[in-house]
């Protein structure tokens, strides 16, 4: 990291810590699927990614406790 980049980073961390931490948390959130899915597959856990949103009938039956 260059000296100018370090100075900018430290300056922003002191002046705008909320914005910098928001960017950090957002970056972690973007990297989670890249990191977590291969780990889950290596451990033998399925990914269980739905093909689409549930239908209203599925939501109603899940909320009422009734199963098909």
If you had to describe this structure to a student in words, what would you say it looks like?
71% of the residues lie in helices and 0% in strands. With 68 residues, the chain is mainly α. Helix 1 crosses helix 2. The longest helix is centred in the middle third of the chain and has 26 residues. The protein is elongated and about 60 Å long. The termini are far apart. The model has no long low-confidence stretch (mean pLDDT 86).
Terminal CA distance reads 58 Å
Structural class: mainly alpha
Number of DSSP helical runs? 3
Helix content: over 70%
Q: Could you say which overall geometry the principal axes of the C-alpha atoms support?
A: elongated
Order of helices and strands: HHH
Query: Mean pLDDT, rounded to whole units?
Result: 86
Low-confidence stretches: none
Strand fraction: under 5%
Largest sheet, in brief, is:
none
Radius of gyration: 21 Å
Tell me the total number of β-strands: 0
């Amino acid at each position: 990291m260059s000296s100018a980049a370090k100075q900018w980073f430290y300056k922003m961390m002191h002046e705008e810590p909320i914005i910098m931490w928001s960017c950090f948390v957002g970056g972690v959130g973007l990297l989670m699927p890249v990191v977590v899915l291969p780990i889950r597959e290596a451990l033998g856990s399925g990914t269980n990614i739905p093909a689409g949103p549930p239908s209203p009938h599925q939501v109603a039956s899940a909320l009422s406790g009734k199963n098909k």
